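[job 4471] stage=fold_predict status=RUNNING
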Amino acid sequence: MINQKECTHPQGFNKVQGIEICLLCSFKPNEIAKRISRPIRYDILDPDFLEDLAKIADFGAKKYGDFNWQLSRLTADKGPVNHIYKHLGSYRKNEPYDHEELGVQRSLHLTAIAFNAMMEYFWAKKEEKDTQNK
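[job 4471] inference complete, writing structure tokens
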């Protein structure tokens, strides 16, 4: 733990998570994170992004069924990695989102990228778990 005796900037002291830290010379987020045990911070996630993510999930659930993407892994042109690149290309070309019922704002492509990344993550973690259990 850092204390004032270790710092030459007493005017820079502040309390962060109850620990006195000199913001001028010793503020190191990684060291603080290692020292402080705290719950996962969902409050720092952007609520608008999470809402758009839920809209995309809801759209897919209505079209294909709840948790359909967890039943079998899609590959090739139907796979999430392919769709990540598709949405990234559309975003970079300033194209509107392709499901008008959700909206046409370009930022929805970024949310679709995140949703597809989540699907790929699900299957990657499953493979890792299956490999560890062998």
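[job 4471] summary: The CA atoms of residues 71 and 108 lie 25 Å apart.
[job 4471] exit 0
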